């Protein structure tokens, strides 16, 4: 045996003992035989620790188990892009617009909701909060809610949405 063949059930293929599903193993998926022996034949691929099944109807080998990973995703994934589960299988992943670079900077976040305390790094003097910079026309096109804060570039003031209307936040800006 030594990891090359796995035997399940009895018999040597066909006959009254039933088919022997495990025929052999191969080093790589590229080394799979061009044709399988019978529908449902299983072959172990050693380099990826995967199992492929022969589909006689489709004349193709289908990977049914990837032993090196329990998630799968698109080959178009981008380095530093955050992967999210597809929400259907619990194992397949898909790309998201959010990226985290090697220095920890996050980009691509459309909305951010936080519960609890959010603090800036007080050790790093370059830490700051950038308010959305909008013109009055852009600000008025928002579906505003109480507590929103923007920098209005038309009047050069920081404004907040309070009790259903935009107000200048005194002590900020000109």
Furnish the topology, listing elements before pairings.
Elements: E1 22-26, E2 42-45, E3 50-55, E4 60-66, E5 81-85, E6 93-100, E7 106-107, E8 133-134, H1 136-140, E9 149-152, E10 157-162, E11 165-168
Parallel strand pairs: 1-2, 8-9
Antiparallel strand pairs: 2-3, 3-4, 5-6, 6-7, 9-10, 10-11
Give the gist of this structure:
The chain has 174 residues and is mainly β. It has one helix at 136-140, and strands at 22-26, 42-45, 50-55, 60-66, 81-85, 93-100, 106-107, 133-134, 149-152, 157-162, 165-168.
Strand content: 25-35%
Largest sheet: 4 strands, mixed
- Low-pLDDT windows of residues: 1-16
Bin the helical content.
under 10%
Head-to-tail CA distance between termini: 81 Å
Q: Total domains, how many?
A: 3
Q: Give the helices and strands as they follow along the chain.
A: EEEEEEEEHEEE
Overall geometric form: elongated
Q: Could you say which structural class the secondary elements and strand pairing correspond to? A: mainly beta
Radius of gyration: 29 Å
Number of helices: 1
Number of strands: 11
- Main β-sheet, spatial strand arrangement: 1-2-3-4
Q: What average pLDDT do the residues reach? A: 76
Q: How would you characterize this protein structure?
A:
The protein is an all-beta fold and 174 residues long. It has 1 helix and 11 strands. The strands form 3 sheets. A 4-stranded mixed beta sheet has the order 1-2-3-4, with no helix packed on it. A 4-stranded mixed beta sheet has the order 8-9-10-11. A 3-stranded antiparallel beta sheet has the order 5-6-7, with no helix packed on it. β3 (50-55) and β4 (60-66) form a beta hairpin. The radius of gyration is 29 Å and the shape is elongated. It starts with 21 loop residues before the first strand and ends in a 6-residue tail after the last strand.
């Amino acid at each position: 045996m030594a990891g090359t063949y796995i035997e399940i059930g009895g018999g040597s293929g066909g006959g009254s003992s039933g088919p022997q599903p495990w025929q052999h193993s191969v080093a790589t998926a590229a080394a799979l035989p061009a044709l399988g022996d019978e529908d449902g034949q299983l072959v172990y691929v050693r380099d990826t620790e995967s199992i492929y099944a022969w589909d006689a109807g489709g004349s193709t080998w289908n990977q049914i188990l990837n032993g090196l990973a329990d998630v799968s995703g698109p080959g178009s994934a981008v380095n530093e892009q955050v992967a999210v589960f597809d929400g259907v299988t619990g194992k397949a992943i898909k790309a998201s617009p959010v990226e985290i670079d090697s220095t920890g900077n996050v980009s691509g976040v459309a909305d951010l909701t936080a519960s609890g305390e959010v603090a800036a790094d007080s050790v790093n003097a370059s830490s700051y909060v950038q308010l959305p910079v909008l013109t009055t026309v852009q600000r008025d096109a928002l579906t505003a809610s109480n507590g929103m804060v923007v920098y209005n570039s038309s009047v050069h003031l920081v404004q907040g949405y309070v009790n259903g209307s935009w107000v200048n936040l005194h002590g900020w800006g000109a």
